[in-house]
Amino acid sequence: MRSSKDFFRPLAVGAPQPVTEIPARPSRAIHFFDPSNEKMAAKVPQMVGTVDVLLGNLEDAVKADNKDAARSGLVRIAKENDFGPTQLWTRINSLDSPWVLDDLTTLVGEIGDKLDVIMVPKVQGSEDIHYIDRILAQLEAKAGLDRPILVHAILETARGVASVEEICGASPRMQGLSLGPADLAADRRMKTTRVGGGHPGYLVRADPVAEQPDAHRSTYQQDLWHYTIARMVDACAMHGIYPYYGPFGDIADVVACEDQFRNAFLLGCVGTWSLHPKQIEIANRVFAPSVEDIKHARRVVAAMGDGTGAVMLDGKMEDDASLKQCLVMVELAEQLAAVDPQLKAQYDAIEVTA
Ligand code: GLV
Ligand code: MG
Question: Dihedrals φ, ψ of 39, to 5°?
Fold first, then answer.
C-alpha cells in the first residue's frame, strides 16, 4: 500500500511537484480538431480565444495512416501559436495501441510546456492512471517541466464505469472525466448505433385507460446516459475533479444536442466536447448560468445575510442549503465572466431587487 504521505511526492526524480487542487478553469467546450487535417489545422489560430479548450485529437477518427502526421501536426501547431486564455489539450491513443508511447514521449518532450491536459481514452481502472502518472513524471523530469500535465479519463468501458471512483482518485493529476457514449455503448453491448444522444426506442408508456384498450397511450423518451453521467458526477465531486458530457454526433440536430448538454449541466457537468464550431456556441451558452438564475441567486445571497436560518422569497422557503446552491451558480458565473466579456456584461447588467 502506498502511504498517503507519498501521494503528493513526484513519481520521478526531478519531476514537478504534484498539484493538491485542480484549478476551476472554464472549460465549457472542448473543441476537437484533427491535427493531420490541414483545413482543420489552419483554422486553429483563429479559434484561440473563442473557445475554452482546443484539443488536438490523435485517437479515434484519425486514420491509422495519419497517426504520425497528427502527432507532428499537433507539435507544430503548439509551437507556432500562443494560446492565450485558451487551454491546449490532446487526446492520445489508447494504452493498448502501438502509437501511445510515441504520443507521450513526443508530446511531453516537444510541447509539454504548452499542454494543459492529456485525455486518456478507454480507461479501465486505476492501473491505467498509475501507468500514465509514472511515465508522465519521468518524461516531465526529462523535459525539465516546472508544472505537471493533468490527466483526463474518458469513461467508455463497462469496467471503467464500474471503477469510476478509483479512477478519479488514482492520481493528484486527475483533472476530470468525460462520457464516451459511442465506445461505452459498444463495450456494454447496448443496441444503439449513435454517437451520444437519446434513442426513440428507450421510453416509458402511459398506463392503458380502463376498458379502452385501443386508446392512445403517450410515450416519453428516456435518457440513455442518465445513470452513467450521475455516477460520473458523484465520483468527480467526491475527488474534487470535473465531469463533462462527451461527443454528440448528430451535428445537424442542434436542438437535441442542446437538450443533452443542458441535462448534463443541470446534473453537475462543467462542459462538453464540441465536434463542430456550431456546438461551441451551444456549449458556451448552456454551460453558463442564465441571467435569470444569477439574478435569483444574488437575491437569495443578499436576503440570507450571514447564511443561516430561513427566509421567504416569492412564497418559497430559502435556507442554508438553497443558499449553497446559489453560491455554486454565483461562483461559476464569476469564473466564466473573467474569460468571457459578453457574459460579464450580461451578469453586470443584472439589477438585484429585494
Ligand atoms: C468517445 O470517444 C466515444 O467513444 O463516445
Ligand atoms: Mg471513444
Answer: -65, -45
- Regarding whether 271 and 331 lie in a shared domain, the answer is no
* Residue 48: strand pairing partners: 51
How remote is the CA of residue 270 from the centroid of ligand 1, in Å?
18
Looking at the structure, do residues 65 and 81 belong to the same domain, yes or no? yes
pTM of the model: 0.96
In a domain, 353, yes or no: no
In this model, does residue 224 exceed pLDDT 80? Answer: yes
- C-alpha 137 – ligand 2 centre gap (Å): 25
More confident residue, 213 or 191: 191
CB atoms within 5 A of ion ligand 2 belong to: 156, 180, 183
Same domain membership, residue 338 and residue 223: no
Looking at the structure, do residues 153 and 21 belong to the same domain, yes or no?
yes
Q: What is the pLDDT of residues 324-349, one digit of tens each?
A: 999 999 999 999 999 999 999 999 99
Quick: pLDDT tens for 24-73.
Answer: 999 999 999 999 999 999 999 999 999 999 999 999 999 999 999 999 99
What atom of ligand 1 comes closest to residue 247's alpha carbon? 5
Give the range of the structural domain holding residue 59, as residue numbers without chain letter: 4-286
Cell 484519425 -> residue: 62
Residue 190 identity (one-letter amino acid): M
Instruction: Look at residue 354 and tell me if it is in a domain.
Output: no
Round to whole Å and give the CA distance between 175 and 180: 16
Distance 121 CA to ligand 1 centre (A): 8
Helix 67-80 and helix 38-47, axial crossing angle in degrees, nearest 10: 30
